[in-house]
């Protein structure tokens, strides 16, 4: 899957959780959603994109969530 499509999808998830009054809870729920519903290959591609492009185009909350929960989101090897 193309990185730009993954960024768009991640931002859509972020938009939903931005409505949460507690930013920490929103961040946790973004990571939980990615872990539960995204294939490991999708998460891996998004993490690779963040490493290369420094998360360009991702909403700040989404980037912060992924960064804080990177170990949980990285596919098992």
UniProtKB/TrEMBL annotation:
One Pfam family, short name: FdsD
InterPro entries (alphabetical): Formate_DH_dsu
Source superkingdom: Bacteria
Name this protein carries in UniProt: Formate dehydrogenase delta subunit
Source organism of this protein record: Pseudoduganella namucuonensis
């Amino acid at each position: 899957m193309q990185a730009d499509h993954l960024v768009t999808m991640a931002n859509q998830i972020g938009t939903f959780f931005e409505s949460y009054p507690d930013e920490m809870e929103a961040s946790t729920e973004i990571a939980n959603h990615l872990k539960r519903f995204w294939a490991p290959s999708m998460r891996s591609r998004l993490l690779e994109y963040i490493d290369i492009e420094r998360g360009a185009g991702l909403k700040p909350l989404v980037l912060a969530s992924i960064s804080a929960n990177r170990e949980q989101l990285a596919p098992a090897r």
